[in-house]
Amino acid sequence: MDRQQEFVLRTVEERDIRFIRLWFTDVLGFLKSVAIAPAELEAAFGEGIGFDGSSIEGLTRVYEADMIAKPDPTTFQVLPWRGERHGTARMFCDILTPDGQPSLADSRNVLKRALSRASDQGFTFYTHPEVEFYLFDAPADPALPLVPVDQAGYFDHVARGTAHDFRRAAITMLESMGISVEFSHHEAGPGQNEIDLRYADALTTADNIMTFRTVVKEVALEQGVYASFMPKPMADNPGSGMHTHLSLFEGDRNAFHEPGAQFELSTTARSFIAGLLRHAPEITAVTNQFVNSYKRLWGGAEAPSFVCWGHNNRSALVRVPMYKPGKGNSSRVEYRALDAAANPYLAFAVLLAAGLKGVEQGYELPEGAEDDVWELTDAERRALGIAPLPQSLNQAIEVMEKSELVAETLGEHVFDFVLRNKRREWDEYRGQVTPFELRRFLPLL
Amino acid sequence: MSLGGRLMRLGFSDAARAERMLGEDALVAVAGRPVASAAGPDDAGWGPGAVPDDLLVALGAVADPDGALLALARLAGAVDGDPDLSSQLRAMLEPGPARDRLLAVLGASVALGDYVVAHPEEIAVLADPTPGTGVPVVAVRGELLAAVGADPDAGTPAATLTGTGGVDAMRRAYRRRLLRIAATDLVAPDPLSRLPGVAAALADLAGAALEASLALARGALPDHGAGVRLAVLAMGKCGARELNYVSDVDVVYVAEPVDGYDEAYALSVGAKLASALARACSHPSTEPALWPVDAALRPEGKNGPLVRTLASHRAYYERWAKTWEFQALLKARPVAGDRALGEAYVAAVSPLVWSAVSRENFVEDSQAMRRRVEDHVPATEADRQLKLGVGGLRDVEFTVQLLQLVHGRADESIRSRNTLTALAALAEGGYVGREHAAQLAVCYRLLRALEHRIQLVRMQRTHLMPTAEGDLRRLARAVGMRAEGAQGLLDRWRAVRREVRGLHEELFYRPLLPAVAQLSAEDVSLAPDAARARLRAIGYRDPAGALRHISALTEGVTRRAAIQRQLLPVMLGWFADGADADAGLLAFRRLSDELGGTHWYLKLLRDSGTAAQRLARVLSTSRYVADALARSPESVTWLGDDADLVPRDVDRLSAEADAVLTRAQQPVPAATALRALRRRELARSAAADLLGVVTSSTAAQNLTAAADVLLCGALRIAEHEARAEHALAQSPTRMLVVAMGRLGGREMSYSSDADVLFVHDPMPGADPPAAQAFALTVATRLRQLLGDVGPEPPLAVDADLRPEGRNGPLVRSLDAYAEYYGRWSSPWESQALLRARPVAGDTDLGARFVTLVDPLRYPADGLEPSVVREIRRIKARVEGERLPRGVDPTRHLKLGRGAVSDVEWTVQLMQLRHAGSVPALRTTSTLEALAAAAGAGLLTHDDTRTLADAWTMASRLRDALVLWSGRVGGAQADVLPHDRQALNGIARVLGYDAGCGSELEQDYLRTARRARAVVERVFYA
User: Would you list the DSSP string of B248-260?
Assistant: First the structure.
């Protein structure tokens, strides 16, 4: 038993924790939870907790139902919304096969593998997500029009606004769980909010995003509103993305920073961006995994629909933020396609792999885009060599299917599962007759 | 005798030059004595040379007399003109211990000689009789700190001498002490017994140098780095207090803020101190650098921060560290800086070190480490390396550390950092045999002594034996092997290497044998708990069961038990290298129960190391071969001789079958004898395949040859029986068996059925219905002879590929085939005929059959588009229908995505379309057809390789499944298993390293996915 495990056992005792939830994430990015009593904790650290994985998306096939969840004691946190007395705590788990090997189907393991490949080259990968979401009046009934909690806009201060209270409550709760919040404000859409998490190593960030989504949902419930991370809940209002800042560190040094270079960007950073751009289409089915994701990507309003990069260009797929002199360690690039409904483990893994591929192969960074790429005509974009991202889930699947990079990164099992699952989603979606079609065609035909 | 002759006899190599130097004025000035007392032993014939003979004798006693004399002459020149030093040197050259020290140093080390010549005042160190070893570490530390003007009693000593001056002062003090240690070392009567003291003194000196360098680093900062506590921990040899003369010094730094200071500040100052410390030791200055300070063993290696807090170290080791890092931590020892912090670090990491054995993957990791120890030797250095490779220093250290990790968890008495101390403690604690431990210690000391003497010459970090004759001779003299000379030294060294390897087995595995089975009273037997821990640590999953087998094999007074006591320790290691150590040991026990009484079995194992090692490999890797050997134990003899493992070719097998049939009286026993022949060849191929004596494609050909011969023989018996049954003297028709499928392609696997067509051709004038009836009897009988249940494994003969499939007659005449193919043939039949190869029966009929089917399978004008479309449609349909229910298509090795059948259909469609115009495509072999398609430009080379890789890998996996599990056929025979243990086992069969099952799985899934992409492009396009 190591010290971290001892710490957990002690805390459980001291704080009178009655339940410990073991959290893990299925391949589609949905949080799964199994609760155990404190008495079982020691066994959980030792051998893990066995569970039937057969009904969990992508985890197993029916004939190898038994899986083991082994909690990671460094992720221990008391859940604040469960009250102070007789509390509940949670830990993230690694999923193991019955003989104790990391499961190839565990998305946390996919990210760990990607990180360890980076670490073999001397890199640590840091991410900093800006998560957007909408608050609607509860209950949010899919059959009725959605009612946002307010009508404010970007950075608006709303007097006695629900959203304001909401953000304060959510941030307090996040901070009490050890998740630092950098920034929060009202976003452009009515009822839309953004909360930025502080940068941390990618595994911690991915764990944090999973926690964040839960916390936001919990707080919304407490305040009688409904929070949604759906990429594009309302056709006429901006979608919710998860712009993510990425950086590589070599030890204590930011590997993206090179004093005196253009935008202070090192060669590593330039080929990392080149890698992101070259592989962007093939990773899109992972970074934007639902049919709805493509409504945001192609919904205009600064959505990054085209594969290009720019310095502080808010229409580019990859943005290099303005450099603040003297802050060498804050050099980073922002990937703007990602949405808040992605599986953060898989998304970070493919982003890292795409960027690293650029670094390994020394990709040349193409010319940056200075214009608003939405303003350009198709012909102009073609002339500038700016390609579009996939326009639908179907296109994204087709590109991903041919991608060695994604297959290597996800591992053959997850790769295959994602493809099958997404094809099924597309087939079901295509089978729908939408209100749009009825409105448009029923009167005519 | 002339002076030259005298010098030669004393051991000088260049007597003429020595004679010249002896006459130099400066030398005579310090070494000369009045002529009257300089008389030689015989007479004064070479008299007035003035250098006394006892000095010459003393020079002759050192490792390199020529070098010593040269250095002495230069030293004499250096003191020339300085009356004080001159008289000091003259006094030293009087017979006595001081002269011995001086000459020993000059004769062993060119580098130290140069140092003394450059700093002649240092001869005082050699004149001083105080020994350089056994000095309290405080004294050494004080000496070096004083040299840089730091107060040894201060909490954080800081140098008052700074800059280059300080660095040079520290380095001179270091070398002065080094000189003293070398002198003590070199005059020791028995260098091997002095070795631990010398190595400890060198480690203490390195520690003191680190301390003084830290004082220099602090001295260079305005506030002497007051805000930070910094501890320097030595790792590796320095940590173990067994340093050699020149080596990287491995360190780890821990920093903590002093109360009232910020952690970030402390870390940044700590990093500054650490870098300055390393610079003081290893950057160029007026005085040469000491050695590189290597901090690469720190968390995250070279990419991690140089300095961490204690908590940060602990967090890393608890969460991220790998097994080898714990092995490295075993050696961690505070040597400089904040003592309390250093101790706290050791206290924090040591529980992790001693529980490392219970970490997941410990077995795999330690096996991988062992391989690294053994394999990482550049080929050019392989026979010169003292440190790396099998039987090198690292090998000894690894053996001791592994034993410490396994047993140190429960027993604190064996946790010493020092190799020799630990080895003694292991013997003391009863974990290894005393005698063997003592032998290993002697080997280790000898290897280290050689390393020391080699390094001393030029003070270079090297672990290579010299190659020049002169260098080897000097080395032999330096380690007291003057009489044996260069060749004697090399022989001794090679013997030691072999001995180290043997001792590893004895130390590690011998104590696992029960007390009654030990060879001598000196041997130990482990207590049951310790024995189980050790077995588990090397990969036995059921240590209790293994111990029972070991007892059963070695206890008793029989000759068998006696020999097995000798053999088993090393075999236990070999079983552990296989995929399933437990199964290997069990199979060995079974085999021994069966064969132990025969005279040749144990003799073979005892006398042929190869046979025993191969037996261990096949038994622990393949249940199939283990079963086959249990079935026909005499096959064990093959393992002793490669020639016996090489496949028998068809001619030789046919001759054997012919002999069997000629002798035979009864049909069924004859067929059984043939089936036994095939079983034997299956076992031979399997063993040869596993041992890498043949490639897997050769094995497939061998399996095909055995099936071919069996079919030929069975046809003969069946015809004979049919004639008897139909009361005929002559057969009324000629018979032919045509091989199809994998048999036709000579691609048989261990589980393949024999796909065939039966053809006959009535003799002129024979009655066609009677001929047909006769042929039917032959075919039916043949299938019975080979397929019926019997004592020997059957070969299922499957004729379902015949016209009209199961609804058609089992056998047809050639004319009937001609008529059928002329009227009805469908695309799938042409496709199946691509693999048709006459295998048994009438040769002429075979040729006519081939002529008949060639136009069908190699259509001159290729295929109509509609036919191509039809074939694609059938394939698309088959993909869904034939796959067994519930099987993941990515894992089915025959019908799955990118598996065997995908590749074969692709190849066969190309053959049907193009073989008419490309003769090279007319082959029954899949791989040959692929190569031909590439050659004809029908397929790119990349696509060809992708398809060939996938086909080969799927085929090999199917074989490996049989070899690993011992099961032929069954629902899972063609499915890549999910079970991790099975995957690991199959991976071992295929030559992957231990624990690489997941890697194999990924490799296959990737290969097949790529192949499928080619199939979709090429086949369906």
Answer: -EEEEEEEEEPTT
Number of A/B CB contacts below 8 angstroms equals 53
Residue B37: per-residue pLDDT: 43
* Contact yes or no for A104 and B1013 at CB 8 A: no
Interfacial residues of B (vs A; Cβ cutoff 8 Å): 300, 302-305, 314-315, 318-319, 352, 360, 886, 888, 890, 978-981, 997-998, 1001-1002, 1005-1006, 1009, 1013
Query: Does B1005 contact A4 at a Cβ distance shorter than 8 Å?
Result: no
CB B479 within 8 A of CB B191: yes
Q: What is the mean pLDDT of residues B932-944?
A: 94
Measured between CA atoms, how close is A412 to chain B, in angstroms?
6
Burial status of residue A84 (CB atoms within 10 A of its CB: 0-12, 13-18, 19 or more)? exposed
Residue A84: band (very low, low, confident or very high) from pLDDT cuts 50, 70, 90: low
Nearest beta carbon to residue A101 from set B302, B303, B980: B980
Cross-chain CB nearest to A64 (options B305, B978, B1009): B978
Asked if the model's pLDDT at residue B720 lies above 50, the reply is yes
Q: B722-736 as b/e, with b when 16 or more CB fall inside 10 Å?
A: bbeeeeeeebbbbbb
Mean pLDDT over residues B385-396, rounded?
85
Q: Taking residues B920-939, report their average pLDDT.
A: 94
Structure tokens at B23: 């006459």
Summarize the confidence of residues A110-121 as an average pLDDT.
92
Beta bridge partner(s), residue B298: none
Nearest chain B residue to A406 by CA: give it.
B1006
Q: Which element (helix H / strand E) includes B797?
A: strand B797-798
Q: How far apart are the first and last CA of chain A?
A: 72
Q: Do B1001 and A61 touch (CB under 8 A)?
A: no
- B754-762/B797-798 β-pairing: parallel
Q: How does residue A337 score in pLDDT terms, banded at 50, 70 and 90?
A: very high
Rounded to an integer, the average pLDDT of B280-287 is 90
Is the pLDDT at B107 greater than 80, yes or no? yes
Is the distance from CB of B816 to CB of B822 less than 8 angstroms? no
Range list of β-strands (E), B380-504: none
Question: B412 CB contacts (<8 Å, ≥6 apart)?
Answer: none
Report the pLDDT value the prediction gives residue A212, as an integer from 0 to 100: 92
> CA-nearest residue of chain B to A66?
B979
Q: Which position has the token pair 């700074």?
A: B162
A250/B1013 CB distance under 8 A: no
| Rounded alpha-carbon distances, angstroms, from residue B559 to B312, B419, B513, B562, B565 | 60, 38, 16, 5, 10
A416: closest chain B residue by CA: B890
> For testing the chain A interface, which of B998, B1004, B1017 should be mutated: the one with the most A CBs within 10 Å?
B998
> Over chain B, what is the mean pLDDT?
88
Taking only the tens place, the pLDDT of each residue in A190-249 is 888 889 988 899 999 999 999 999 999 988 988 889 999 999 999 888 999 999 999 999
pLDDT score at A47 = 80
Q: Choose among A63, A101, A252: nearest Cβ to B998.
A: A101
Average pLDDT over residues B413-441: 91
Interface probe, candidates A94, A101, A120, chain B, greatest B C-beta count within 10 A: A101
CA angle, B459 then B288 then B170, to 5° = 105
* Residues in B touching A99 (Cβ below 8 Å): 979-981
For B318, which of A2, A100, A123 is closest by C-beta distance?
A2
Contacts of residue B219, defined as CB under 8 A and 6 or more positions apart, other chains included, come to B148, B150, B158, B159, B160, B161, B162, B166
A310 forms bridges with which residues in the sheet? A319
Phi/psi at B379 (nearest 5 deg)? -55, -35
